[in-house]
Amino acid sequence: MNFFQAIAQALTPQGILWTLVIILLATFMHELAHFWAARLQGVPVNSFSVGMGPIFWRRRWRGTEWRLSALPIGGYVEIDGMAPDVGTDGVADAPKHGYALLGAWGKVAILLAGPIMNLLLAFLLLGGNFAANGVPDVQANRAVINRVVPASRAAQLGFRSGDTVTAIDGQALPVQERVNGEEVGGWTRVQRALSVQGPHSFTFERGGKTQTITFDWTPTVGGKRAILGIEYGAASSVRRVGLGGAFAEAGRTIVSAVPQVLKAFGNLFSRFFTLNFTQDQGVAGPVGTAQIVSQAASLGGWTLVLIAATINLSLGFFNLLPIPGLDGGRILLVLVGVLRRRPLTFAQESAVTAAGFGLVMLLSLFVVIRDLSRFF
Q1: pTM score, whole prediction
Q2: d(CA 197, CA 344)
Q3: Bridge partners of 237?
Q4: Which of 155, 227, 235, 261 satisfies CB 3.0 to 4.6 Å to 142 for a cystine?
């Protein structure tokens, strides 16, 4: 299978379409929050674009030029006084109007509005999902078999859909354990056991009874990876909650996600600075995201809602990173001015922002290349 065939197999037209819709909506709401935070303080917004690149439709309404651009991969707002003024001589100068005249906290309010909007959307989407479908309680020390492939080795051994694995090779699955420096759920022992040659025993619960299947296993056959023929995941139950409980759980989910997201971004930057293109489960780029959405699109609407919540959560946290060029970086520069009791000069801020923007572009290129490398 060549590179393009591999991508075509991983990405479906429906998945690509839903990816664009989710990203466009997340970006639109992000920029709309910046827009309203500026307008509420009397700062004009010169333009608001849905999409990037060449403009194919524009209309001026209430002082703002509203645009539709050709590339459906984001959007932007042009807030008066945020970009430099360019004179007739072509020389850029510090603006003295609009955003530039605001105090530090007025600027922070505009910059903070976008990420907060994405976190709010994640909160609402998660809360709606929990209210409609209940709260999943994961049992990481159990591995439930969701599907057994017909005529596979697993089917011949007697595995069935719904079996809940509680022990492997006579050892009960732990709730958590450290593997290669990372904390993982005990249910992931299934994969590690199947990478080891020799006799294995799987103890599981079926219909309230405990049973054990013992078999000899060879991870590779003829140079190819052997497949047992089961699809599995951490066991979970569903707890029904009211509306208040659903949104309380959504809040707890977002708070608990903070260290995981920071760890994922830290791992990404570590790999970026060492040019480590190996895959991990942390941050997915546009191709990886489209692949995830392609899989989710076949599972139903609520799965897409959870994906949309995750994308908004990631977008909100990413934009809060203190990297110049991102909202968090701009906020950092404003706060540095507060601590110095005088703002950075226009030249200083422009230089730092340009460097940060360059870093973000290189990071984006790294993520895309790493995404594509899985198909080579």
Answers
A1: 0.79
A2: 63
A3: 137
A4: 235
